[in-house]
Specification:
It contains eleven helices and nine strands. The chain is α/β, with parallel strands linked by helices. The protein folds into two domains: 2-67 and 265-281, Glycogen Phosphorylase B (Rossmann fold, 3-Layer(aba) Sandwich), CATH 3.40.50.2000; 84-263, Rossmann fold, CATH 3.40.50.2000. The strands form two sheets. Strands 6-5-4-7-8-9 form a six-stranded parallel sheet, sandwiched between helices. Strands 1-2-3 form a three-stranded parallel sheet, with helices on one face. α8 packs across α10. The radius of gyration is 19 Å and the shape is globular.
Length: 282
């Protein structure tokens, strides 16, 4: 089996699933402990699995990271009239920080919106965020975004589902992509941004440091669950630093795309996966 997350490490899912959280936790545990081989999508997740399920044989747990199709995700050209950014009214002459993801506590959206109060005044924030886990977390984000929009210009929230082409355009146009997750076994959205040659600012949780090379393809920000204010300040500081240094942001972006091509190709990952299946079936 391949595990992309661990239920015991996502307690906020209780809010979404109610009693179903106990069922999903039991199903996961049963599958993990019955498997002849387990694939974890990062080394950090492998460590988490062995901690959460101490009876699991470490020899059965293999690390194969998720990949990215760099022929689907690539740097798009300048935004044209009729593009999603033009329709939103995003100013192409101002820097832009972008978030793409679901509205869930795991993704840290409120942390980002709160941090944006500290962004340089010329920085625009584009949130591509929908599919809220619960009405409660949706309301929290709605209130936070409304407060931010009252205090600064250039706040855009796209709640509709976007096509890959539209997302590619937005990621490519971004000065920086921000991933404020509080839990992330790997963080494939960072790969999508990197493949579009965009610098990344991300939390240092889970498998993210295995994707975002700090000081090479982006900046990692320490997440402390007991210090939300400090975390938000560090996010803003990292974004502002890259906005103030376009040459570094561009260098990170180019390095990120090369990293995707060299280390996260699906062909390489498919061969690794096939090798494990062969060993299990031998």
């Amino acid at each position: 089996m391949t595990a992309h997350s661990l239920e015991p490490l996502r307690p906020w899912k209780k809010e979404q699933l109610g009693g179903g959280y106990q069922v999903s936790t039991w199903v996961e545990q049963t599958a993990v402990l019955a498997a002849n081989a387990v694939i974890a999508v990062s080394s950090a997740m492998r460590n988490d699995m062995l901690r959460v399920y101490p009876s699991l044989d470490p020899n059965l747990v293999h690390v194969i990271r998720n990949g990215i199709d760099t022929e689907t995700w690539y740097p798009a050209g300048p935004a044209r009239t009729g593009s999603v950014l033009a329709e939103l009214g995003v100013d192409p002459n101002r820097p832009m920080a972008v978030f793409v993801g679901r509205i869930t506590r795991q993704k840290g959206v409120v942390h980002l919106v709160t941090a944006a109060h500290r962004f340089r005044s010329d920085v625009q924030l584009v949130l591509c965020a929908g599919a809220a886990d619960t009405p409660e977390v949706a309301d929290e984000v709605r209130v936070a975004v409304a407060e931010l929009a009252r205090n600064r210009t250039g706040v855009f929230w796209i709640q509709d589902r976007l096509t890959i082409g539209q997302l590619r355009e937005i990621l490519s146009a971004a000065t920086v992509f921000v991933c404020p997750s509080v839990y992330e076994p790997l963080g494939i959205v960072n790969l999508e941004a990197m493949a579009c040659a965009t610098a990344v600012v991300a939390s240092d949780v889970g498998g993210i440091p295995e994707v975002v090379a700090d000081g090479i393809t982006g900046s990692l920000v320490h997440y402390d669950a007991d210090d939300a204010t400090g975390y938000q300040a560090r996010l803003a500081e990292a974004v502002n630093a890259l906005v103030a240094d376009p040459a570094t942001a561009e260098r990170y972006g180019h390095a990120g795309r090369q990293r995707c091509i060299q280390e996260f190709s699906w062909a390489y990952i498919a061969e690794q996966t096939l090798d494990i299946y062969r060993k299990v079936c031998a």
